[in-house]
């Protein structure tokens, strides 16, 4: 089949592979390559971009048409580019034929002009520039090649670093040859001089190259897992399961530029997102099970294969969990060689090379939260690489950058300001996107029929779909697909995390019982002993922050060979032990928490205080890093009990355990547990848990300060608040949610930066829907996403305002939100600043404005709305009689969009605030705004950072002559000279420049 036919036949698949996930990065990278290879001319490229409003799918279709028309060679090149750019999961199932090898003869002749070089080297220039946009702009400004306005255009906060780099290249091209030369020279100068670099093998001792090979093969081996099943042991490679998770820079690189950009693995140790040039540590933080360890393993594997982290000669990988069990003091040399990889040759020579070339060494620490001590920089300063120190001291000094570069992963709870000071950058791992879930399921099930059925059941159960954003839950759901598909539609399928883990428990137990499957709910009773043994081990571990166990510890808890064979424990050979000591771990820490919870619920002889202890809120904890021993001397006996409880709560894993306890004590699982535990005992435990939850919530409510005069009563949720809400959700008892919410009296509920994803949204909606009076729900700067929005719908009727700034929401999420919002009487305000909205959502927003004549505020700043979207929005604005605030800051509606909006609003008798900041508005737009000013109720008008000239401002001045309501018109950053500003301010003091 020819390449042309392949493209035609697979148009749908190619389209969905390039568009799935909503990110244009795949398409843009394909375009970069096609331009570089000379398949597309500049004009062709432009046709896939113009008009700027084209949605991703439309642009992709445009490209497919273009290459098809260009003939078979172009199609071959397209397929080659596609194959090169997209990750495996996205190109699965696509037939590339054997025609997709790049035909180098088609490439451009060697470029002789700078502009041609920009095109020919586009893919590598994008890579090089994305971490140094600011530097490049500075040089272009200094040489007069760029104006400040050009710079602003490139640095639009909605752009990811790669998009900024492409925009920069396009802008430079439009400026001509000189600008292109300046940029190329800048790039050349930025490239690191090759001082003892990996490229120059001759300067690297043989010893190191051998050691590198050894490290590489050890890390490659670690990417293979051996799983025992009934039919024997199967080997699974990381390649077989890995799907890219969503990585996001935690903070903006500069205050004025709130980067929302998702980044790729390659940017983890690159320049992108650098906050502190002096620091050498990169932190990857993420909630439990979001895939931090897996991501590190992937990074290690790519390094071992030579496909990533090219700048590092040696990579040392450590697990804090394993290091925690090391009691001895070690030197850096011992840490590297004993705990990671033993050198076969001359150790001293190798170590000296490491010390002399720290820039070629990368150290990774997985699971900082699993160290028994919190990070501290106040302890012993340790700079001598051969001197011994306790393991935490050694790690903390490495993280402070006194020795070499490092990457560290951690759950966010334990990342404290002391550590942040030493971070080069912080990156959040946010789990799977909706598309990644699909890819994961498809990769997991080679039978497409099964994969489709699993995906279908997820679509029909959005609570479960929400859970699947956390990879570990996605893995369980995929693994237990038979149990999942076995749930009839009427039963609804798993809804809570506890449901998912119970499903897994049943799956593992029944997998072993293949010859004699217990029926109905008997499976747990059949395996009660195993559950109790493993539960005891798990609980002891959680209490002592211990996640690896020796055979002796297993024995102490009564764990038998048979229990081990159930598959919940995996064994790991301790790297430091030459004496072959085997350590056991639960498959995942959340599984350890689940078993600990199972033990608390099933064990009839447990201490009465077991449940209150695990529900102890975090603020009762001792200062982080404090040891049992230090507290012991100075406390009374009563305080000792409190201390015990506080210690138990110290680990975030205790909270996860408490969440599972709540779930297991839910009425829904009563019939299952009754076979193993007497009813009265279960009732007692359940009452205890409910009491703890209700006490915890009331403590929160009591802490709400009285509002100052004329301010709303507002509650800023503490992290424990979200956890308590999740526990209530796990219990699935509406009466508890109702009773709790009956006493909450606030007008505003603030949950910004609380790591709220779809799972938390499900729980929030479950509880908040019982609020007595509507509130403003502020969820800014979380990871709600489209699935989270859908989960929030049940509580929309009790939200008068919904704030969802920076939440990775797309048009689809907005469509669903509005569909429901229209039916909610109290719903009056929405803030959607910095999401992924395009013109495809404006028709829905217009519909909302038409339908809701009590709607007050619509804030859409920093999205991708263009003139076409503004025109659609205007349809709604024209028919609305209530809107007071309209924010469109940082979109690109231009003059045309401004005319449409101004026209639609010119008879508004309610609008008091309008922002069109940074929208490419020129004097034509200003003229339209002047007509709006004439007879409107507007009080504040924001037109900062546009391209309005004096002529445009004159229209506004004239309009203001007959208007008394307007108090201020902000015009900073437009195209006016200092003299013009002076003169216009004299004329109209309400203009602010
Ligand atoms: N990117 C991924 N691709 C495929 N599967 C993944 C991915 N990330 C995680 N998983 C699955 O989820 C499980 C848990 O992931 P992992 O242990 O990496 O999470 P974590 O964030 O390190 O959790 P914790 O904070 O509890 O240690 C893995 O064993 C794997 O099955």
Automatic annotation (TrEMBL):
It comes from the Eukaryota. This is Uncharacterized protein. It comes from Dallia pectoralis (Alaska blackfish).
């Amino acid at each position: 089949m020819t390449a042309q036919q392949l493209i035609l036949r697979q148009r749908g698949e190619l389209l969905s592979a390039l568009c799935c996930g909503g990110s244009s990065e795949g398409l843009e990278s394909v375009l970069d390559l096609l331009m570089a290879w000379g398949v597309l001319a500049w004009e062709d490229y432009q046709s896939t971009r113009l008009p700027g409003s084209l949605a991703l799918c439309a642009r992709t279709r445009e490209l497919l048409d273009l290459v098809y028309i260009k003939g078979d060679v172009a199609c071959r090149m397209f397929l080659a580019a596609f194959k090169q750019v997209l990750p495996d999961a996205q190109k699965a199932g696509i037939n590339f034929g054997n025609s997709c090898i790049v035909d180098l003869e088609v490439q451009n002749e060697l470029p002789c002009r700078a502009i041609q070089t920009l095109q020919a080297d586009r893919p590598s220039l994008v890579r090089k520039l994305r971490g140094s946009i600011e530097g490049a702009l500075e040089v272009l400004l200094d040489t007069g090649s760029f104006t400040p306005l050009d710079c602003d255009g490139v640095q639009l906060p909605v752009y990811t670093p790669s998009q900024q780099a492409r925009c920069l290249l396009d802008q430079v091209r439009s400026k001509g040859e000189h600008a292109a030369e300046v940029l190329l020279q800048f790039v050349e100068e930025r490239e690191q001089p090759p001082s003892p670099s990996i490229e120059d093998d001759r300067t690297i001792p043989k010893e190191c190259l051998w050691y590198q090979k050894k490290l590489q093969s050890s890390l490659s081996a670690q990417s293979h897992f051996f799983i025992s099943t009934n039919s024997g042991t199967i080997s699974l490679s990381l390649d077989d399961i890995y799907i890219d998770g969503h990585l996001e820079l935690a903070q903006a690189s500069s205050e004025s530029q709130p980067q929302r950009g998702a980044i790729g693995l390659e940017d983890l140790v690159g320049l992108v997102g650098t906050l502190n040039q002096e620091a050498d540590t990169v932190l990857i933080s993420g909630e439990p099970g979001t895939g931090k360890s897996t991501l590190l393993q992937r990074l290690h594997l790519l390094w071992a294969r030579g496909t990533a982290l090219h700048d590092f000669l040696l990579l040392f990988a450590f697990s804090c969990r394993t290091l925690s069990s090391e009691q001895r003091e070690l030197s850096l040399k011992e840490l590297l060689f004993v705990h990671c990889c033993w050198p076969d040759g001359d150790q001293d020579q190798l170590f000296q090379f490491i010390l002399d070339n720290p820039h070629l060494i990368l150290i990774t620490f997985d699971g900082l939260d699993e160290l028994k001590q919190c990070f501290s920089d106040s302890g012993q300063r340790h700079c001598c690489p051969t001197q011994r120190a306790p393991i935490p001291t050694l790690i903390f000094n490495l993280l402070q950058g006194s020795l070499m570069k490092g990457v560290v992963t951690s759950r966010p709870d334990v990342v404290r300001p002391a550590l942040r000071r030493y971070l080069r950058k912080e990156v959040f791992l946010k789990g799977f996107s909706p598309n990644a879930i699909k890819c994961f399921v498809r990769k997991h099930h080679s039978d497409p029929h099964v994969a489709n059925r699993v995906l279908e059941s997820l679509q029909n159960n959005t609570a479960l779909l929400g859970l699947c954003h956390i990879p570990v839950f996605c893995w369980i759901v995929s693994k237990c697909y038979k149990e999942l598909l076995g749930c009839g539609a009427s039963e609804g399928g798993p809804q809570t995390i506890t449901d998912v883990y119970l499903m897994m428990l049943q799956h593992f137990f029944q997998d072993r019982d293949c010859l004699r499957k217990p029926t109905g709910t008997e499976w747990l009773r059949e395996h009660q002993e195993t559950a109790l043994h493993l539960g005891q081990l798990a609980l002891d571990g959680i209490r002592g922050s211990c996640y690896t166990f020796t055979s002796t510890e297993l024995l102490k808890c009564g764990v038998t060979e048979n229990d081990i064979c159930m598959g919940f424990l995996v064994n790991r050979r301790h790297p430091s032990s030459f004496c072959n000591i085997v350590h056991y771990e639960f498959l995942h820490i959340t599984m350890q928490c689940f078993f600990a919870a199972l033990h608390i619920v099933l064990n009839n002889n447990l201490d009465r205080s077991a449940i209150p202890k695990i529900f102890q809120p975090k603020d009762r904890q001792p200062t982080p890093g404090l040891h049992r021993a230090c507290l012991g001397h100075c406390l009374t006996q009563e305080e000792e009990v409190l201390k015990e409880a506080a210690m138990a709560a110290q680990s975030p894993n205790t909270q996860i355990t408490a969440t599972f306890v709540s779930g297991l004590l839910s009425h829904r699982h009563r019939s299952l547990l009754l076979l193993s535990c007497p009813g009265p005992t279960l009732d007692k435990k359940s009452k205890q848990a409910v009491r703890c939850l209700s006490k915890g919530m009331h403590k929160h409510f009591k802490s709400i300060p009285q509002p100052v005069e004329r301010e709303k009563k507002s509650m800023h949720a503490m992290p424990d608040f979200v956890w308590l809400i999740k526990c209530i959700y796990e219990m699935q008892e509406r009466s508890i949610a109702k009773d709790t919410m009956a006493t909450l009296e606030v007008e505003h509920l603030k949950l910004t930066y609380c790591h709220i994803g779809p799972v938390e949204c499900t729980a929030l909606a479950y509880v908040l829907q019982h609020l007595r009076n509507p509130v403003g729900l502020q969820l800014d700067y979380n990871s709600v996403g489209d699935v989270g929005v859908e989960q929030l719908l049940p509580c929309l009727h009790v939200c008068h305002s919904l704030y969802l700034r920076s939440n990775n929401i797309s048009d689809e999420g907005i469509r669903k939100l509005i569909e429901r919002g229209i039916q909610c009487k109290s719903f009056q305000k929405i803030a959607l600043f910095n999401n992924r909205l395009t013109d495809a959502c404006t028709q829905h927003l217009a519909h909302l404005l038409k339908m809701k004549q009590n709607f007050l505020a619509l804030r859409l700043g920093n999205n991708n709305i263009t003139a076409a979207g503004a025109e659609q929005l205007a349809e709604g604005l024209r028919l609305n009689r209530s809107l007071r605030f309209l924010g469109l800051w940082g979109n690109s509606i231009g003059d045309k969009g401004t005319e449409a909006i101004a026209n639609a609003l010119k008879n508004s008798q309610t609008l008091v605030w309008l922002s069109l900041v940074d929208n490419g508005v020129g004097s034509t737009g200003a003229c339209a705004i002047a007509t709006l000013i004439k007879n409107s109720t507007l009080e504040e008008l924001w037109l900062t950072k546009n391209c309005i000239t004096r002529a445009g401002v004159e229209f506004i001045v004239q309009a203001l002559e007959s208007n008394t309501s307007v108090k201020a018109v902000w015009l900073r950053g437009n195209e006016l000279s200092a003299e013009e500003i002076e003169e216009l301010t004299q004329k109209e003091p309400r203009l602010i420049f």
